Amino acid sequence: MGGLSIWHWLIVLLVVVLIFGTKKLRNIGQDLGGAVKGFKEGMKTPEGEQQPPGSGESSQQISGQTIEGEAKKEKTQ
Questions:
Q1: 46-65 pLDDT, tens per residue?
Q2: What is the spatial distance between Cα 77 and Cα 64, in angstroms, rounded to a whole number?
Q3: Whole-structure pTM value
Q4: How far apart are CA 42 and CA 31, in angstroms?
Q5: Tens of pLDDT along 63-73?
Q6: C-alpha of 59 from chain center
């Protein structure tokens, strides 16, 4: 009563092919592969290229720059 044997998987595959047909399954596979490829390309950002403004960073933050300064307490009378 454990897992499914190879014969069970072959029967499931045969039923899926009979229901959808090979042409439709091939089109679904191509669409899914193209979507995954596009997603991977979209996630890659070239190292020398900065992201356009407003794409994840707030407009007040500038990456790569450090602002140094001192805070002084104001004397009150």
A1: 665 655 555 554 545 556 76
A2: 41
A3: 0.41
A4: 16
A5: 676 778 888 88
A6: 24
